[in-house]
UniProtKB/TrEMBL annotation:
GO terms for molecular function: catalytic activity; iron-sulfur cluster binding. It comes from Clostridium cavendishii DSM 21758. InterPro entries: Elp3/MiaA/NifB-like_rSAM. Residues 13-205 form the Elp3/MiaA/NifB-like radical SAM core domain. This is Elp3/MiaA/NifB-like radical SAM core domain-containing protein.
Length: 229
């Protein structure tokens, strides 16, 4: 599995996909990548150290993701990231967190002492789709609640059952309220969720202008960041 990449087409940065302890929630209905989680702290740290060696700091920006939230990355790995931030003069860090950690984000800011853009996987602003269908367990009601904590949201597009109206509303709320965002076009995995090819075709055409957007990224394949498998 590729765990390091440079993103150069826009919002330039280096990205690493680290291993971590099990995702605190672990029950999103569409997720099968928690298989990457492990309780073997030593092995997790060993692998993460190798991955982190790749970081050059050339863009001054790094993104650290894992199959879960940054709070599940072992302390030794987090300390190594902090060392790299100092050594390589990193000015901006992107981290991911589940909604349930929203009141703990300051802990990471204090730990790293560098500006952090926190991304949250909400998949949709629609409460029913997010919680009752995708089982995301992110039970906010308004976009304002999300903005209070997070600077970037990850949305999901192209799952059978999603409507164009629902996607349009999600995209509108993203563009109007957040500087940063990641839109994942659904790639089928081992879960029951299927791709809606017709909606994906429509989405690609209607939102092709986002290809030029500086800070909103559309991933047409779940490996478009060059990490994962
Ligand atoms: S929070 Fe992320 S890693 Fe955890 S189950 Fe949901 S999608 Fe998977």
């Amino acid at each position: 599995m590729d765990r390091y990449n440079k993103i150069i087409n826009k919002n330039e940065r280096e990205i690493v996909l680290l291993k971590s302890f099990p995702c605190v929630w672990g029950k999103c209905a569409f997720c099968d990548y928690i298989d990457d989680n492990s309780k073997d702290e030593e092995a997790v740290n060993k692998l993460n150290m190798e991955v982190l060696k790749n970081i050059t700091g050339e863009y001054g920006v790094i993104e650290v993701i894992n199959s879960g939230s940054c709070f599940e990355i072992p302390k030794t790995s987090l300390e190594k990231i902090r060392d790299i931030i100092k050594e390589k003069n990193i000015k901006l860090l992107f981290l991911e967190s589940h909604w349930c950690y929203r009141n703990r984000l300051q802990e990471m800011r204090d730990f790293f002492n560098v500006p952090i853009i926190f991304k949250v996987g909400i998949e949709s602003f629609d409460y029913n789709f997010r919680n009752n269908i995708l089982n995301k367990n992110a039970k906010f009601k308004t976009v304002e609640e999300v903005k209070e904590y997070f600077q970037s949201v990850c949305l999901m597009v192209g799952i059978k059952g999603q409507t164009k109206e629902l996607i349009d509303l999600d995209m509108k709320l993203l563009e109007e309220n957040f500087k940063y965002g990641t839109v994942n076009v659904w790639t089928e995995n081992t879960t029951k969720f299927k791709r809606d090819e017709e909606i994906i075709k429509w989405f690609k055409e209607k939102y092709s202008y986002l290809d030029k957007h500086e800070t909103i990224e559309v991933l047409y394949n779940n490996t478009d960041f060059g990490v994962g498998d």
